[in-house]
Amino acid sequence: xxxxSEYKLTLIYALRDLSRNYKKISSIILTLFISLFILSSIxxxxxxxxxxxxNNSRALLGGDIEIDYNRNVGNLELINxxxxxxxxxxxxxxxxxxxxxxxxxxxxxxxxxxxVDQNYPLFGxxxxxxxxxxxxxxxxxxxxxxxxxxxxxxxxKINDKIKVQDQLFTVIGIVKSVPDIGGAFVFxxxxxxxxxxxxxxxxxxxxxxxxxEYKVKFNEGDNPNTLSKKxxxxxxxxxxxxxxxxxKSDGPLKRIIDNFSQFLSLVSIxxxxxxxxxxxxxxxxxxxxxNMSIAVKKSLGFFSKDIKIVYYLQLxxxxxxxxxxxxxxxxxLVPIVDVYLSAGLGLNIEGSFSILNYFKVFLVGLxxxxxxxxxxxxAIDQVKASNxxxxxxxxxxxxxxxxxxxxxxxxxxxLISLFTIGSARPVYSLGYFGAFFVCLLVxxxxxxxxxxxxxxxxxxxxxxxKVSVKNITQTKSITPITIMSLGLGVTLLLTxxxxxxxxxxxxxxxxxxxxxxxxxxxxxxxxxxxFEDLIFDMDKEANLEIVPMVSTGIVKINGIDPNxxxxxxxxxxxxxxxxxxSSWADKVLKDNPIVEGKWWDLDRxxxxxISLDSKIAKDFDIKIGDIFTLNIYxxxxxxxxxxxxxxxxxxxxxxxxxxxxxxxxxxxxxxYLATSKFKxxxxxxxxxxxxxxxxxxxxxxxxxxxxxTDLLNxxxxxxxxxxxxxxxxGLIVISSAIIVQGKIKEFQNxxxxxxxxxxxxxxxxxxxxxxxxxxSIILIALFFAIIGSQFIIENIFQIxxxxxxxxxxxxxxxxxxxxxxxxxxxNFKYLxxxxxxxxxxx
Length: 842
Known about the structure:
Blueprint: H1 2-21, H2 26-55, H3 57-61, E1 65-70, H4 76-83, E2 86-100, E3 108-116, E4 127-129, H5 133-139, E5 143-147, H6 148-153, E6 161-164, E7 167-177, H7 184-187, E8 190-194, E9 211-218, H8 224-234, E10 242-245, H9 251-289, H10 291-299, H11 304-329, H12 334-344, H13 355-377, H14 387-390, H15 402-420, H16 426-455, H17 463-473, H18 479-514, E11 518-523, H19 528-538, E12 543-557, H20 574-577, E13 580-584, E14 594-597, E15 608-613, H21 614-620, E16 627-632, E17 635-645, E18 658-660, H22 662-665, E19 671-677, H23 686-692, E20 697-700, H24 701-740, H25 742-755, H26 759-796, H27 805-828, H28 835-839
Parallel strand pairs: 3-8, 5-7, 13-18, 15-17
Antiparallel strand pairs: 1-9, 1-10, 2-3, 2-6, 2-9, 4-7, 5-8, 6-7, 11-19, 11-20, 12-13, 12-16, 12-19, 14-17, 15-18, 16-17
Helix pairs in contact: 1-11, 2-9, 2-11, 2-13, 2-24, 9-13, 9-16, 9-18, 9-24, 11-13, 13-15, 16-17, 16-18, 16-26, 17-26, 18-24, 18-26, 18-27, 24-27, 26-27
């Protein structure tokens, strides 16, 4: 009971002391709140998205189970057996051109069309307007619903006529969203049509990217597991079918969410660690201001341990309040994100309280607080009760012991583990933390080097320069703190700025210069000459490239089904997911140089030989001489890997993951794929070309580049804003460091005042001091930013990196001015110290 009473009194005292002094630690409150708010927002939005995906997994897939036959109609007898115990909805997706009927408009759009039956959708709802439009699809022939982008770009009105291949369709409405999102239905142009549409169009060519899907909905009360196993048994001998379950329908989308949230989480923990530096300094300032109060407690018989407990208790109370506020405020971001997602993806998210997420936010805040407060609160050991009688101000410093260092390292390991274990890519997280701490160490060493160099300089005649040098090199200088906190923030922001500028430059400038104007898909063998004549009639100087194309699927690698050991986390998993388009060539392509192996063996014309993308070979651990079993028009044919090519997909020229030897492949039924770059785009008439070749698909490269650029701009804005917050936190850290020096600054400026220094000279010395430090920060930050951004651009995006002087100057000048203004404002209150109170040591 005695101990309980003691703990209660300690808690009451800690609360009272905190209520009296909360203004003195306002920078701790601010930096901690901003950091925890970012972290809370990421956790809350990610959790809300995952719950939305899980709760609507059936709607996202379109059923309890999806039976996907890809380009084949499938075994209708088995499908009919499924209909005996479940509801089945058949839908067929294909790509084709949608064109205006007015020749003067000459407009067409490459679109993805989904034909649906009367059962669609089994789950969820289709968003459309006007009322009743969706129901007309099955009752009125040749009707179609187009998305808003098609409606706008083709300048359509309700009941207008459009052409799909050589058939006329009536636009009866606009489709705003579909529940089963995916592929072009997320970012591309799409439309909905009735089931009867399939009978009107020619959809046998490869350019249609035809896909037959059967969605299955179990009856209410039936056992899903039992029926799922029954369907598996029915289709176990069907080689061309792929069965998907609603639990995994959000796979690609979830991976995007996981990867993006992982990156933002790492940025937020960087902000927290930078904030930790400010927390340590502000706390040290707070303890210094309570120096005499601590001495009084010790003279009354308090032990250092008891006083430390009070301070730790205050931090714990503060953390509980701040983490609760930060987590609560994070829910205000959910409606903002929901507006974007509901418009773009048809997802509706709602924020919900998660005790686990709240605990993670609190735990991260607790770990950061303890790690950075240990050396500060340990400084209490330096205060002596005798200071009370001597009336001496003792400026405390950080104090480390072997135990405190080991404890800090242990807590830091736990913190890193929280953001590494269970993350989408643990190796990336470890690499990020490694780079972060290397940068921190370098900036710390840089600060010591600057101090050492300036200590060795000879006396300078200019008073302002001499004062600034002394400020930099003095024992309790804020130079290390400024360089570390600001240096890390500038490095992060510069790196992301360079990545963004390089990526957008490559898309906006380099790629359009190299890329063709159009891709033409679905040219039949008997139409090749017609196609060439039509193109050259429009533009005699057009640069036209035509290559053969055949559909191939990798069934086995060295006799083993690749799906049994290559999972979706593999970068090249897309190669085995569905049938791929392959081609052949007589000679080595200029933009596809061989990096290993030899070109075709002409002595074996009757044997299939394969040239493989070197990146895919590396991801699949393929060696020269390995055997691929390909499915080519229903036949399984074995082929030997004879060489690896370095494939550059970035220029939008014709590239294939696999090339076949022409001696073998030329006898395979095939179509043609073409690209064209026109001398004069005005002469190209899409509508006229489609009138002659209605089954042709035309992809305009600039349309897709604009969509990609728009998406990337939004992503980089979000990332840059969050990264810029680290700079704000760094500035608060610097401000708190200056406050720590407050007493020293007051005494220093008092001496200057007595000696007759003007305010201008004092301000000038601060500006010189800032420029010396900031120049050093920028040089090192630029070095790290160049290395980091170049690695990301050349190794991850695999495009050319270039230094962007304009971005560098914008970031540098912006941060420099903001920092200088903050330093001036923070120092301003120390420019006119009162002489007599300081002389009396009051």
